Protein 1
Amino acid sequence: MVASSACSATIGQPAPPASIRAAMGDETQRRSLLSARDLVKVFVDARGRAREALVGVDLDVREGEFLSIIGPSGCGKSTLLRILGGLSRPTSGSLECAVDAVGRIAFVFQDHALFPWLRVVDNAAFGLRMAGVGARERRRRAMVWLERFGLAAFADAWPDELSGGMRQRLSLARALTTDPRVLLMDEPLGALDPQTRLIVQQDLARLFEETGVTMVLVTHSLEEALLLGDRVAAMTARPGRIAEVLQVPLARPRREDTLDTTAFAALRHALWQRLEREVHSAMELQR
Ligand SMILES: Nc1ncnc2c1ncn2[C@@H]1O[C@H](COP(=O)(O)OP(=O)(O)OP(=O)(O)O)[C@@H](O)[C@H]1O
Ligand SMILES: [Mg+2]
């Protein structure tokens, strides 16, 4: 699904704040495609009470990086992703979008939102149809991605003939057929069983390494955030802000055996130390 981006286009990018620069090290050399500054999002519930979902969020999505976003349930991860993708406007703050990312942001949602009345190939080609691409070219481009995800043999099947893992791969294929500049994913693998999830994680790692598409992934899994991310942004309990941006200096390609390394265990430990108190705070908020 391709979202039209509501963010303002800019060519020159403002430098990120020093706190973020210090945490990012060499990453500051890359230019920002999306640049959020001091974002605030306030929702008003049915009884008219204001609820702050995000406060003072500063975050850059850098060209060619894989950025993971993790945080306790209800801390505003989906809200932040929707703002980054132009699907929702912040209450205050700014979002700048590099000129070549405008209108080229694709989303993958957790529930994969496939169209049951369209065959697999037509689901994969849906974004192209919306963009006015002709039928023959749509099918050709969709088939490239279906092949890549091992779904070519199912091109003429219906979505409900696919397993959960295959449906999730189809969602990724559908997002990628539109040749996005940035792929935003909101817990895309959350509904998968653990073994299928491992396989699709590795599909995603391979895809990132091969295509260089800038990717942002919201996840609850520490392992997934670290296995896939060049950086992991850890959020505080609601109202969400960025608590820390952790570098993941693990070599690529990253595969399942990366999870068994001592470097990985040390990163997981550091990330959990930062997150644990936020998860406790979020649980307190729910009481
Ligand atoms: N459309 C809305 N109207 C009112 N409140 C909302 C709306 N969307 C989100 N919220 C509130 O904003 C806060 C953040 O929600 P959000 O869905 O962004 O959290 P999240 O981190 O994605 O949670 P989860 O991990 O459970 O997916 C929550 O308190 C939620 O109830
Ligand atoms: Mg969410």
Protein 2
Amino acid sequence: MTEPKPLRVLIIGSGVAGLTLGLSLLRLQLSRPHFNLSVKIVDAASRFDAAGAAFCLSPNGTRPLAQLGLLPKLLEKGQVLTGVAMHEGWSKKTVQDIPMPPTAFGGHFIAIERSSIQEILLSEIRGYGIDVHMKKRYKEITENTGENTLRVVYEDDTTDDADIVVGADGVRSRVRDFVLAEDEDTAPCFSGWSYVAGISSSIPNLPAEETGKSHWCIANSGKGGYGTWSLPDNRQFWYVLEPDEIAPRGPGTPMPRYSDESLDASVQRAKQYWHPFGTFSQIVERSDRMYKSALVERHYPRIVSKSGNVVLIGDAAHPMWPYIGQGANASIEDAVILANALLPRSGEVRGTLWYQEQRVDRTARIMRAGGWVGRLQMGETVFWRIARSLSMMLLRLLAPNQASQGTAQQQEGDEGGNRKGGPLDWIHKEDIRLEL
Ligand SMILES: Cc1cc2nc3c(=O)[nH]c(=O)nc-3n(C[C@H](O)[C@H](O)[C@H](O)COP(=O)(O)OP(=O)(O)OC[C@H]3O[C@@H](n4cnc5c(N)ncnc54)[C@H](O)[C@@H]3O)c2cc1C
């Protein structure tokens, strides 16, 4: 008797979304030997580099990674968040300073470099004898409808055949163009805001309580906001969000790309800002990895092709504003749920449409929450400026209570790991697990 053919899954993109999916599928295959699978991961980049990106993983992202056995490495390479403070950049006043519990809902808040998490995921994937095929830039897909298979063509005109193609190719996804082929306008919407970000070397002489602390500063002048996430060894992931004075904004507006001159101008502006460490310039000047990009978002109700065998995950499926730090976390959730969707149970496979049903409403809700927080922090209209001033006033009045509430939460988190009451708790407590 001939062996049934393996399900060939081709993952385009090796960011946190693509690599988490790859590892999840390989783990499922190990625990369910009947899950006959072949996994291939490709990326357009020529090498993994330490571009200056980082993010904070929250319990909804760290719990599934811990289930994959990655928590010790995440704790080694990342920085557990110990507190979040919000400041008025113009008045240098702290309006909110909340200690964070070390764990909440059975997970951690960990700030980590994108390259570190890639390294962690990749070293696990390599343990299965699989590596990422670099310099493979996706160009197009052709469908063999008779056999229900797909052929992916790369820019170098080489090809791969697959049963399922997963677009994990980020915010400028080209696989998305295939999935949404019949929709006229598929590009993410440019917000009119750009961001500059980088990672500094160690900041000297920081007090111990700064380890793990994140700062967010609001510039009420309409010039945006800026902040830092604490990384290991007192290094800082910093970012500045500012309105784009040149590119037009709104639906249908192409996502701008910024020149080195534009990056340089933003960096010079950033150096003028105040920061709780003293000046922002001492952080920026210690950074050699900086980049500038556009803030975009778009909710796509369809993230699976009509044929069902081309699927989007991560930023390709839901480019979102970063105000509540959920893009990477939602990418991890996508990856785990898609792996569960492809797993056969008693001969049945839930399939990619089930994946879509599980993801579309939740990511829309997350994006709505991020949209409100973003407008409150950065909105330029009179309405949002008044709302921002009122919320700052309210936070200042409540600040002492919140600080003490934070301490109580910390104890609760320490003991029970079951913090209650935050407005984003519904996001962090979502219990997504691989069905090992
Ligand atoms: C300032 C800022 C702060 C943020 N903070 C947070 C945070 O605190 N928490 C959080 O959860 N999220 C945060 N995010 C969002 C987070 O960074 C992203 O959501 C996440 O990195 C997306 O991962 P991804 O794997 O989907 O895409 P990417 O990391 O963009 O990976 C896509 C991959 O696809 C490859 N690729 C692209 N095109 C092709 C092609 N044609 N062919 C083959 N390969 C291709 C690329 O080379 C890349 O390796 C933040 C974002 C910003 C901008």
